[in-house]
Write a structure and sequence with these properties.
The protein is α+β, with helices and mostly antiparallel strands and 126 residues long. The chain contains two helices and six strands. Helix content is 21%, strand content 27%. Strands 1-2-3-6-4-5 form a six-stranded mixed beta sheet, covered by helices on one side. α1 runs parallel beside α2.
Length: 126
């Protein structure tokens, strides 16, 4: 059985998908980009600000499922320019305890939705 997770505190999906799906004790989030849920605007000021918005969106989805970043076991980071890796990693790292950080992959891609620079998805387990 699956439970669809939606919250007004994260951007509404821009296609036929849910913000997250809870299956048993495992939460699968859709990729989040830097939409501000309140204004509907993309936050593309700089890569650090963009990454922070992505992480805040993921935080809202996790909270809607009754979870925190401590529950995250795996993340996938898609970036448009590997030269931004260190700056993205700096912001991303603020959300996790380094000693219990999740597994992760970071992949450079040719293009992301809405021409953003970073998209992140997560798997979390309660």
């Amino acid at each position: 059985m699956k439970t669809i997770i939606n919250t007004a505190n994260a951007p509404a999906p821009i296609g036929p998908y849910s913000q997250a799906v809870l299956s048993g004790n495992t939460l699968y989030t859709s990729g989040q980009i830097a939409f501000d849920a309140q204004t509907g605007e993309l936050i593309l000021t700089d890569i650090q600000t963009e990454t922070k918005q992505v992480m805040e969106n993921l935080k809202a989805v996790l909270e809607a499922a009754g979870m925190t970043f401590d529950h995250v076991v795996k993340t996938s980071i898609f970036i448009s320019n590997m030269d931004d890796f260190a700056r993205i990693n700096e912001v991303y790292g603020r959300y996790f305890n380094p000693e219990t950080a999740p597994a992760r992959e970071t992949v450079q891609v040719a293009r992301l939705p809405k021409d953003v620079n970073v998209e992140i998805s997560m798997i979390a387990v309660k």
